[in-house]
Structure formats: C-alpha cells, structure tokens
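Protein folds are increasingly written down as discrete tokens. With that in mind, we are printing a sequence and the tokens encoding its fold.
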Amino acid sequence: MKEKIRELRLMAKDPLLLTVVLVIFASVILFILYPLFKVIIVSVFPDGAFSLSMLGKVVSSWHLRTAFLNSLLMGTLTAVLGSLVGFIFAFTITRTNIPCKKFFNLIAIIPIISPPFIGALAIIMLFGNNGLISSTILGLTNTRIYGIRGLLFAQVITFFPVAYITLKGVLESISPTLEDAAMDLGGSRFKVFRKVTLPLAVPGIASAMLILFVETLADFGNPLILAGSRFSILSVQAYLEITGMYNLSKGAAIAFILLIPSMTAFLLQKYWVSKKQYITITGKPTTSSIKLVSPRVTWILFAVLSLFAAVIIMIYLTIIWGAFANTWGNDNTLTLRHFAYVFGVGFGAVTDTIIIAGLATPISGILGMVIAFLVVRKKFPGKHALEFSSMLSFAVPGTVIGIGYVLAFNSRPLVLTGTLAILLINFIFRYVPVGIQSGIAVLRQVDPSIEEAAIDLGADSQTTFKKITLPLMIPAFFSGLIYSFVRAMTAISAAIFLVSSQWNLMTVQIMSQVNSGRLGAAAAFSLVLVMIILLAILLIRSLLTYKYGKLGGTFMKI
C-alpha cells in the first residue's frame, strides 16, 4: 500500500505522465474492455433481464456444439501442423547451409500478405474436383477438397508463416556453440537436437502453437469457402447469425462461447510460456554452426522446403491466372476487364483501405510504443492491469471484436457505426499489441542508465523520451509497423461488421465478389492488394535504410 501511495505522489509531480496514463487507461477501457463487456452483457441479458436462455440455446444446439468442437479441432490441428512446418523452415534456414536461403525466407513470409478468401479459391482451382492439378494433371475425379482436409491444408499454408517468424527468432537466439560443445562431448546429431536444441526451443514452439490456435479460431475467411456444410465452424456461424439472421443476441452468445478457448490460450501464453524462458546468449558467435545437421538430412530438408515453396508459388500463380483470365477455370482468354472493374467501380474500396490502414497503423504503433515505455520504464498503480488489458485485443477473435463494436457503438452516448472513426479505432486498438511487443523488446535491450544519465544532467522525462529513448526505438518501431500495416490491409473478421456504404475495404470487396461469383474480380482485387503491401514494405525499407544505413536494413529483416 505504501508503495502505491509513493507511486501516486511521484505521478502527481509529473503532470504529463499522469495525463498520459489517465488518457490511455480511459481509451483501453472504452475501446477494448467495453466492447467485450457488451458481448457478455447481451449474451446473459438478451431481453434486458438476466437470463442464460440464449447461451442455453447455443449450448443445446447440436449444430453449434458440433461447430464449436470442429473449431477446437481445427485450431489444434492447425497449431500443431503449422508450428511443425514453421519449425522445419526456421530450423533449416538457421541450422543448415542449404542454397537459396533468401528465396525460402521470402516464400515463408509471402502468405502473410495474402488477402482472405482468395487463397482458398486458388486451392479449389488447383485441387478441387475440376482442379488443374487434381483433375487435369493427376486425373482424379473425387478429391473432396471441401471439409476438414481442404480447410486444414489452407489453414496450415495461411498461418505457418506466423510460427516461422516466431521460431526463427528463437533459434537464432540459441547460441550454436552449445550444440557444438555437446557434439564435442560425444553426443550424436539427433541426441544433441533432442537434448539441447529442442528443449531450448520449447517455449517458442508453445508460444507459436498458442498464437496459431487463436488465429485459427478467429479466422472465417478460409472456413467460409472450404469448410462446406458438413464441417461447420463457430466463427462462421456467429457471422451468419449477425448478417444473415440479424440475431444480435445469438451472435453475441456464440461470440461469448468462442471467447472462452481464446482467452484460455492467451492466459496460458502469458503466464506459462512467459515464465519458461531460457537465457543462452553471453556473446553471439559471428558464424552459425552447421555441424548439427548431416549432409543427407540437409538435402532432405531442402526437398521439403522446395515442395512447400512449389505449392505456395502455384497458389500465387493461380491467383494471377484468375486475375487475367476471362473466366477463372473455364475461359483462359487473357483480359484486363477485371482490373478495369477494380479501378473503376471498385476503386473507392482501394482508396478507403489505403486511407484507413495508412491512418490507423502509425497511430497504433505510436500508442503501442508509449504503452511499452510506460510498462518498462515507469512505475504507477495499475501498470500490470494496463499491460494486460491493452494486450487483450490480440487474444480475442476478430469476430468477437466486430460484434462487440456493433453492440457498444450503435447507440447513444457514442454512436460510431458506419463512420470512418469506428474502423480507425478498431484497427488502432486491434493491432496496438504489435507496437507494444515491439517497443518492449527494444526497451529491454536499452540500458536504463542511459536515460538516468540524461535525467541526472537536468532533462525531464519528456525530453529524455524524445531525445534518447525515441531515436533508439525508431528502427524496430517501423519494422513493427509493417506487420501492423499488413494485418490492417488484409483484415476481415472484425471489419466485416463495421464497413458501410461510405467506407468500405478491399477485403470486404473480395468477399462480395466471391459471393457474387465474380472470381476474376476477386483475384484482381487480391493482386492489387498484394502489390500495395509490397510497395509499402519497399518504401519503408528504403526510408529506413536511407535514414539509418545498414542499421535500418538490419531491423527490417524478418
């Protein structure tokens, strides 16, 4: 208690710090906690009075129970298989001397910039009953791409890059000298991998699996296309209840059910995985060891990576084919009419998406950096609550967030539905955890004595942050911005509930074109979206390299 009183007194002496903390607390409560609270309230107060009848209907429904179990099954399988593929890519790139490492690194991160729906459509065009690979080349007549097999294939391809990025960083942080020392003491390659490398990577693997589990629960782009009628998914059912049946109470109840496994996974990641960290770096060697993997296994891993690379390249070539073909899968005559539609009728969605993502991303990044600074460098009452609450939006499925925003801001005192503001606020607070994590990672590498020295020389906290801390954070901050921008450009699960006739998004347009059967236009929208993202990445990279030289290029590496 005395410590809390002392922290309050220190805050009172710094009005700027007090104001910033209060404003951030109010924003987090209003735009993260309040929408979640509304989802829970509408679930248990469906008619204004307390009742578990709506939740009872959801739980008692055989169809929805099956959808819930299917969601858990798909989340678990995607987490396991996606993390396995991500680990194979990360291990091969960090622990072997295969050729074309930069190429495989690029291939491993390309699916991140894919818009929803279109990858699933490309998989149907390749491996469906009349697919190019399954039917034309292999002569198969009944491939059953719809259902659990096709959906799992699409989810693994879509989400394994998230595991790859996480595990690549983990494996790079493990000093290869540990493996060298174990082998010098007589350990076989497999034994060293099993006893040294794998245990040190376990926290990262568990973290990647939990992230993929939550991402899969939240996704309804691939399930909407590939799940089929026999393998229903809960996120799709919530969406259909809101948009098809106009039943907000039931949609909120389904969202509340979906929230339970997501929050469980988030708490496991935060309080279990974060405690299972191993410090192994005392001075990184200049070169990595390649003794752990034999030449034979190296070429086996190279073959596996080549197979996945071929599949990913085929998917993207199929999207390009669809964008330029007169009728995707039927009439392959080259045409530009789909792009004429995109830059004509659909150009408003293109500009809206760029404006919304362009405005929301830097605000989200700056807010995340400020919260990270407060969490790491300042002491104030409620610091841990602020950190937990601000990270909460990353753990909650987008479907739940979207429904929560509709419920929270569709009536007085704060009516935002249909405006630019609700989309901006959603993106800002949806992706603020990216900025927080990026900022925390950088600040923990900066010795606090540097800032303390500035304060000892007479600088106040504002000047110290602006002149000392901020310049040290900028390169990694921009690196985090790229991820936020990509996610904002490809977002669908929450935004689908928030768009309006005045403000639309390219991802929503893609979904609309798919539902209307205009697959060529959907592919053209997707291709334009990918090109915008690539141009933004190249622009930010060029600016950083120009400003910081080699340092900027180093921070931009994924």
In short: The beta strands are 325-327, 331-334.
